[in-house]
Amino acid sequence: MADFLQDKVAIVTGAGRGVGRGVAQLMAKEGAKVIVVDPGVNVDGSGFDQSIAEQVAQEINQAGGTAIACTESVVTMDGGERIIQTAIDNFGKLDIVVTCAGILRDRMIFNMSEQEWDDVISVHLKGTFTVVKNACILFRQQRSGKIITFSSQSGLVGNSGQANYGAAKSGIAGFTKVVARDMGRYGVTANSIAPRASTRMIGAIPDSAAEIRARGGVASLSEGDELQQLDPDDIAPFVCYLASDFADNVNGQTFLVHGGDVSLMSQPRPERVIFEPNGHWSLDDLAPLARNYLTQGLANPAPPA
């Protein structure tokens, strides 16, 4: 029965393609009215094509759902506010925000330009903030709302050649935990998903970058091959679960989702501790204890060649 999200109003950014498209379509199938947000840019953030969002909205409407297209950019505060206002103007309310929008500018750190850094941070991290911040003004007033952000294994674990992307995605995971604490008292939940799926962004990663990662022991080529087989639509069901009333008690969590697997990621916590009773370390005391206990046996994620 298509009623898990009946009469809900949802915004999905980056909904023109890939994971976001699948989320928008399934939410509509489950009864939500969906704002399909996508300016139709290329993987690197260049260009503009309003037909991308319009096509997805049209497909949803033809299938019996309800959707409208929105081509606003998430990279400015005004854009984020207009995205929220689009929901209010067309449907009179907002219940769910899903932030899938993203671009990719992979480069090894010693080659990365300031522009490549700024562009990726703007779309992923600031683009999450602009939409979520403006949604939270409304959610606080109505004492309800569901926020689902998109982090990445690159941000949680690290991936060679993705300093900008990894920093943004790690920031989103931390941002989401703070939003969960800020908004939980108002009946709002905020959770993050780290997806693994074959999308345009994965396809745009140069083969040379994958080879560098494999040689450094950061990611194997077989893992890359496996990733190419993962359907982006597989992410949508768990997003819809988090957006539904079934997940009212889930807040401030991060989930790894790929294929048929959904994993709850552990929260950061102390694993080993050394202490100085007097509260002030001398390096003579600290160095051997740290070497022999605190850092002993730790694996180098990218050992020297």
Characterization of this structure:
With 305 residues, the chain is of the alpha/beta class. 44% of the residues lie in helices and 14% in strands. It has an 8-stranded mixed beta sheet, sandwiched between helices. Helix 1 crosses helix 10.
Main beta sheet, described?
Answer: 8 strands, mixed
Radius of gyration: 21 Å
Total DSSP helices: 11
Helix and strand string, N-terminal first? EHEHEHEHEHHEHHHHEEH
Overall pLDDT level: 90
Domain module count: 1
Please bin the fraction of helical residues.
Answer: 40-55%
Count of DSSP E strands?
A: 8
Could you please say which CATH topology applies here? Rossmann fold
Q: What is the top-level CATH class?
A: Alpha Beta
Full CATH superfamily name:
NAD(P)-binding Rossmann-like Domain
Strand order in the sheet with the most strands: 3-2-1-4-5-6-7-8
Topology:
Blueprint: E1 9-13, H1 18-29, E2 33-37, H2 51-62, E3 66-70, H3 77-91, E4 96-99, H4 114-142, E5 145-150, H5 153-156, H6 163-183, E6 188-195, H7 200-203, H8 207-215, H9 221-227, H10 236-243, E7 254-258, E8 261-264, H11 283-294
Parallel strand pairs: 1-2, 1-4, 2-3, 4-5, 5-6, 6-7
Antiparallel strand pairs: 7-8
Main attributes?
305 residues, single chain, Rossmann fold, 8-stranded mixed sheet, 11 helices, alpha/beta, 44% helix, 8 strands
Describe the structure concisely for a colleague.
The chain has 305 residues and is α/β, with parallel strands linked by helices. The chain contains 11 helices and 8 strands.
